[in-house]
Amino acid sequence: GSSDGGGASDKNSSSGGTTEVKLGVIPIVDVAPVHLGQKKGFYKKHGLTLSMTAAQGGAAIVPGVVSGQFQFGFSNVTSLMIAQSNDVPVKAIANGVASTGVAGADFGAITVKKGSAIKSAKDLEGKKVAVNTLKNINETAVRESVRKAGGDPSAVKFVELAFDQMPAALDSGRIDAAMVVEPALATVKGQGATEIASSLVDVAKNLTVALYFTSNQYAQQHPDVVKKFQEATAESLAYADAHPDEVRQIVTTYTTIPAAVLAKVTLPKWPAEPNRASIEALEKLGEQDGLFKSTPDLDELLP
Amino acid sequence: MHASLVVSGLRKVYEGSGRRVEAVRDLTFTVDAGELVCLVGPSGCGKTTLLKCMAGLLAPTSGEVLLGGRRVSGPPPGMAFVFQEYGRSLFPWMRVGENVELPLRQKRLSRARRGELVADALESVGLADAARAYPWQLSGGMQQRVAIARALAYEPEVLLMDEPFAAVDAQTRADLEDLVRRLWRQRGITVLFVTHDIDEAVYLGERVLVLTASPTVVREQLKVDLPEERDQLRTRAAPRFAELRTRVYEQIQAAKRGEPVVEDAPPPR
Amino acid sequence: MHASLVVSGLRKVYEGSGRRVEAVRDLTFTVDAGELVCLVGPSGCGKTTLLKCMAGLLAPTSGEVLLGGRRVSGPPPGMAFVFQEYGRSLFPWMRVGENVELPLRQKRLSRARRGELVADALESVGLADAARAYPWQLSGGMQQRVAIARALAYEPEVLLMDEPFAAVDAQTRADLEDLVRRLWRQRGITVLFVTHDIDEAVYLGERVLVLTASPTVVREQLKVDLPEERDQLRTRAAPRFAELRTRVYEQIQAAKRGEPVVEDAPPPR
Amino acid sequence: MLRALFVVAFPALLFVVWWFASDDSTDVYWPPLRTILRTFPDVWTRARLRADLLPSLLRLLAGYTSAAVVGIGLGTVVGSYRKVRAVCEPVLEFLRAVPPPVLVPVIMLFAGIGDTMKIVVIASGCVWPVLLNTIEGVRAVDSVMSETARSYGITGPARIRSVVLPAASPQIFAGLRQALSIGIILMVISEMFAASNGLGFTIVQFQRGFAIPDMWTGILVLGLLGFLLSVLFQLVERRVLGWYHGLRDASRRSP
Amino acid sequence: MNAALGAAGLAAFLALGEAVPRLGIVKEQFFPPTSRIARALGDEITDSAFWTDLGDTLTGWALGLAIAVGAGVVVGVVVSVVPYLREATASTIEFLRPIPSVALIPLAVLLYGTELRSVLLLVVYASFWQVLVQVMYGVRDVDPVAEETARSYGLGTWARIRHVLWPTALPYVMTGVRLAAAVALILTVTAELVIGAPGLGARIAVAQTSQAVPELYALIVVTGLLGLLINTAARSVERYALAWHQSVRGEVTV
Ligand SMILES: Nc1ncnc2c1ncn2[C@@H]1O[C@H](COP(=O)(O)OP(=O)(O)OP(=O)(O)O)[C@@H](O)[C@H]1O
Ligand SMILES: Nc1ncnc2c1ncn2[C@@H]1O[C@H](COP(=O)(O)OP(=O)(O)OP(=O)(O)O)[C@@H](O)[C@H]1O
Ligand SMILES: O=[N+]([O-])[O-]
Ligand SMILES: [Mg+2]
Ligand SMILES: [Mg+2]
């Protein structure tokens, strides 16, 4: 398991020449590289020991990082931009995860029930579409898919539903479509659902979806630790990207995804660097949808 | 219509919380239909227990109670009970009038008839003014009279009263005694009356049953051969009255001392 | 050491839940230190109210109560109260022995002394066996005797008793009466005793106070000029006893009828 | 007068403490009270109250009422019959321990994702204090009172209505009181799932959107709502339990 | 006897859990039948990490409950006994009570991260009110005659609390503890679930995001069973502590 962050370790306690840092993550495939990097000794090589805590989402991770309870955290890009626009002192430091960039073969997609009359994103007008969080990256992505398909995104009825509840809701017809990511995507596909759009691809080519971040304060006070983390993470991302089988293997150590599902899961991309252009595109769309209180300062936010 | 009460071989043992009490050992007696019997006995001898068994509120350990030939296994209709713990037997969320009226509603009497019965009953115990008060706004004696009024308004065929006049003053007590005798004669009801007051037992009853101390049996059954028509002043002053009360007194004292029960004989004249 | 009780101009009006009752209108009387006074009056006339005011449990609407010259504003130490609602005044979560012992712990008596006092008190009311029972496992009369035992074990200087013998049988009652008189004489305590039994009032008291019906004032104060040494048989048979009881009876009946109060005079000899 | 002073003094003190303690806070999560109060009118506009507060209140009302009905009804039955209690208690205790955030997805399977689900979630949480207190209150009905009722043939519905429920009502009200605040809590939790409006939804959106002062105003609204509902509750209780308060106060008018 | 009836009730409940998906009322995929859940539960309990997590959850629960009950009882009694305190605090209590612990999660994390203390903060906050309100209603239930008796015998404030007020409030407190025990368990699991503190909740979170439905239900069953055990314990304490009370002694006599 990954939930071994309960130790009473101090922020920077050194043990055997390595610095222990706490990392707030979500127990999903996306964070496989850090687990893998930890296992492969990439962090150790840079003098870091990761202590990972799996939280449910940003509501717990961001305040944890801001208050210094965690040194680093994992968050989607839109959330980070929203946080920054609200003066939450966060700073992205390493790439997290990116879309595969291949329409029809991404790790997230808009899906409809088998036999649904909805054939394209345009047909979502007037329909009920589930996203995991309203006014966040997935809603932006769905809106863009609708727009690109020639529809009016403001005519879509969004409803907030956790990924894991989407298969049942879609199957029972309580929602018309769902913006799902892995492993729920593999599950709905197993139910015979069809993908009608790869929204993340629609936002931008090779969209950077999530980033590792720290607090401004920590970044200023411990540039050395941050640097080590960046280097080790870059190495881990590259390794994970190149070794999909090892990724599928490491995922079983911190999730309980059933083997049959895991085999069908489409892995994301883990480029070593964030794709600035894609983030700018995401920022534009977010701005257009009124997500931000003030325009996020990407120079300030991004590494 | 009115039914006799037969108690045969009644035994009641209380068990629980680390205490076992044989409250009643073996009681056998009969109250004829339309009879008024008074029950006396030392404190804690099992009078309340006996009454509750007779009312079908408590299951006897062995033995049985027959009412009109039918075994009592739950509260029979047409029977009213005046509890010794009068305070706790009134419902504090109901006003006095409602307390008296409640059983009548259960009898499905008309509203008008209920109102009449309630008013009459409260009037007869001297509480006509208190109908709108809550029980806890009344004095102890007044509460006890409410409980009596409730039983009277119910127009029972069998009336079981457990020390019903313990908390009222002497004058009220005398009035209530006369009320009970009057109702008994008018309505022909069967009454079993528990009291600690020997004079009261003799004055009221057609027969006085004396119980022994626990474990309880019937010590004596005394026929009260005073005239039907009784009067607080004259009856109580009668020499026969004095004889009877002395007899009962002696029996109770003997019961308390635990003397063996003598044969059932009428007191000497 | 023992203190007199002075009640002056006491008035108590109950208000609330849509009812206003002037329970006590104007009471003025004195109980001397070491005196045993009995209080009689019609049901609901305010005896309990008066006692609670004297015990500092109820704030009078006007007037005051002085104990040993000091105004009573809360329960004074060294005073014991036997409540009319004996059942509710015992704590159901404590065994009988614990109920009796509790006030003694408050007095910080040693464990041994407490045990002794509890045993003696229970013994004297005839409940030595029941120490380990819970109050709700006892009969009504037994519960009442527990409440009395608690007051006796407390060794009070002032004892207020509100119909304390209402639920016990005649023989036990006589025994308890003698017990109260004996303790009163031995310990020189001040006793105020409410009862409905006129004979009891005359037998027990040095003085009998008769209250009128509500709104209450003192109707009569009667000195009981019977010898100190009293005896259930002889005293009650004495002609003077009969005179006194008749006098009290008349006064109560007059009180109930609401006749004007006559001047304070001793009964004719 | 003095009483009124006491009633306002303590909250006022807390307010002052909060005001000054937070006054120069730069922590985004602990904004100065000043900022929160300044944000308040901008956030809780009339339109928002209609759009978010009203649907929440209606769900709360529906959920709370059904919980009260089910809790009192079931509690009376379970409390009255020892055997029924023995059969039901383990299952009830099992269900009671399941946390609403995990329970909601299960409820969604049966009740959909609309208002029905939210009402069921609210009811499923509120019902416990009412149920438990009703069971205990019914079990504790004074033996002399229930014997009195039995001896007068007051059985069945009349017994429940005239004896059992009034006797248990002080304790039932303790449960209803508890349920009120639990209802508000579950209203928030239910609106974290598949919602598009409501007080809980709004607060969670603020929280996820890092609009921290706005989130604090939402917490204030929840508190105010709880306070107002409890005042309302007390008015009802004073009426229904008038006899009880009278009885308990009877001798407390002492020095 | 009671245990047998309770087992029968549970068996019926489990049978229902088997029947609902089997009859197609919901899909097995989303609501696995009891037998499938049992299999997943079997797998769970052979995993040592499960027991560690269970231990963490129980620690958080027990500590949180103990603090909440202690504080709830003390505050409840003090507020009820000290004149004016009740009036003074009433509005504040009513204001704070409905604020959901879940809304406080960011604050808890801010203060204590994902440590036990963070869980405790949420658990104590939520279960404290359960006890407090029950204590306040319980204290109000003191019989006036009992109270007068105690006062007339000169029992001081402390003695009256101990000998009169406490026994009277105890049945209410017991109900409060039972309510609080469940709420504490709920909040322990919820807090672990949301903030990722180690324990059953974190395990549930993983099962949720992993689409591991039977495992998820197995864990839900574990929390339910915990609740059941806790209640059984509370009931036996009650049978001992409230032997004198109508609700318990009523069970003995007919
Ligand atoms: N609920 C109970 N549990 C255990 N024992 C009980 C219970 N009720 C009564 N007893 C015991 O049974 C015996 C008889 O009690 P009961 O109340 O019938 O006496 P009683 O004749 O009515 O006395 P009293 O004249 O004092 O009212 C007593 O010894 C009492 O202790
Ligand atoms: N708590 C109360 N609230 C309102 N009225 C009350 C209250 N207690 C007593 N009263 C009223 O005050 C009057 C006197 O009551 P109190 O109990 O003092 O009488 P008492 O002389 O003790 O009568 P009893 O001999 O019947 O016990 C009665 O009319 C009664 O209704
Ligand atoms: O406080 N709760 O979130 O239950
Ligand atoms: Mg009796
Ligand atoms: Mg009185």
TrEMBL record, chains B, C:
It comes from the Bacteria. One of its GO terms (molecular function) is ATP binding. PANTHER family: ALIPHATIC SULFONATES IMPORT ATP-BINDING PROTEIN SSUB, TAURINE IMPORT ATP-BINDING PROTEIN-RELATED. CDD domains: ABC_NrtD_SsuB_transporters (cd03293). Signal peptide: none annotated. Residues 5-238 form the ABC transporter domain. InterPro entries: AAA+_ATPase (IPR003593), ABC_transporter-like_ATP-bd (IPR003439), ABC_transporter-like_CS (IPR017871), ABC_transporter_ATP-bind (IPR050166), P-loop_NTPase (IPR027417). It comes from Streptomyces triticiradicis. Keywords: ATP-binding, Nucleotide-binding, Transport. This is ABC transporter ATP-binding protein.
From TrEMBL, chain D:
One of its GO terms (biological process) is transmembrane transport. GO terms for cellular component: plasma membrane. It is a multi-pass membrane protein. Keywords: Cell membrane, Membrane, Transmembrane, Transmembrane helix, Transport. It is found in: Cell membrane. Coiled coil: none annotated. Pfam families: BPD_transp_1. PROSITE patterns: ABC_TM1 (PS50928). Residues 53-237 form the ABC transmembrane type-1 domain. The keyword Transmembrane helix applies. The chain crosses the membrane at residues 61-81, 102-131, 179-204, 216-236. Its main location: membrane. Belongs to the binding-protein-dependent transport system permease family. This is ABC transporter permease subunit. It comes from Streptomyces triticiradicis.
Automatic annotation (TrEMBL), chain E:
One of its GO terms (cellular component) is plasma membrane. It comes from the Bacteria. One of its GO terms (biological process) is cellular response to sulfur starvation. Pfam families: BPD_transp_1. Keywords: Cell membrane, Membrane, Transmembrane, Transmembrane helix, Transport. Its main location: membrane. This is ABC transporter permease. It comes from Streptomyces triticiradicis.
